[in-house]
Amino acid sequence: MIITDNLLATFLETRSNTEEICAPLQIEDYVVQPIVDVSPPKWHLGHTTWFFEEFILSKYVNGYRRFHPEFAFVFNSYYESVGKRVIRTNRGNLSRPTVREVYEYRDYVTSHIQAFLEDNEDPKVGELIEIGIHHEKQHQELLLTDIKFILGNNPLLPKYNDTFTENPVSDQDFGYSNIPEGIYEIGYEGNDFCYDNECGKHKVFLQEYAISNALVTNKEYLEFIEDNGYKNTLLWHAEAWDWIQNNNIEAPLYWHKIEGQYHQYTLQGLKVVSDIIPVTHISYYEAFAFAQWKGERLPSEFEWEAAQSFFEWGMRWEWTESAYLPYPNYKKAPGALGEYNGKFMVNQKVLRGGSVATPQNHTRSTYRNFFHPHLRWQFTGLRLVKDI
Ligand SMILES: [Fe+2]
Question: How many whole angstroms from 4 Cα to the centroid of ligand 1?
Answer without folding.
Answer: 25
